[in-house]
Amino acid sequence: MLLSNTGEREIGTEGKLLLLAREDKKLQGVGLQSRQPIFLFVGSDAFNCCTFLSSIYFLGGTQDGNIYQLDVRNTKAPVRIIHRSGAPVLSLMPYKDGFIASQGSTPVFLHFVVNCCYVSLDSGQPELLFN
């Protein structure tokens, strides 16, 4: 059985984006149906992980400890960069109105959006990161 360009295996892929954390300092978005690059963002170091926060926002964590928040509508510059330490960002996961991040030499920390400000919960003590 021959499949066309958009075959039975590709049902529901229209408008979907695959996010790739790459070791060559790049975070890349690829259209699932088209298989074409949508964007390419260059960071400060190798990207170890990435995740979507919503249909608009996504995160990428780097080897040098940066967490980039980007907007799929404009990936030229990050919405914000979070830097807690120089330890590699190993994992990122959306959680409620924020995200959970783990780094190589620091405990897991939570970030939440509270009235348009980012708050970090590290060891149970809230800390305002920035407006």
Order of helices and strands: EEEEEEEEEEEE
Low-pLDDT runs of 5+ residues are 123-131
Mean pLDDT: 81
Strand order of the largest sheet: 8-9-10-11-12
Total strand count, please?
12
| Count of discrete domains | 1
Question: Can you give a write-up of this model?
Answer:
The protein has 131 residues and is mainly beta. It has a single domain (15-130), classed as Methylamine Dehydrogenase, Chain H. The chain contains no helices and twelve strands. The protein has strands at 17-21, 26-31, 37-42, 47-52, 57-62, 66-71, 80-83, 89-95, 98-103, 106-114, 117-122, 125-130. Strands 8-9-10-11-12 form a five-stranded antiparallel sheet, with no helix packed on it. A hairpin with a 2-residue loop joins strand 8 and strand 9. The N and C termini lie far apart (56 Å).
Task: Give a quick set of tags describing it.
mainly beta, four-stranded antiparallel beta sheet, 12 strands, five-stranded antiparallel beta sheet, 131 residues, globular, Methylamine Dehydrogenase, Chain H
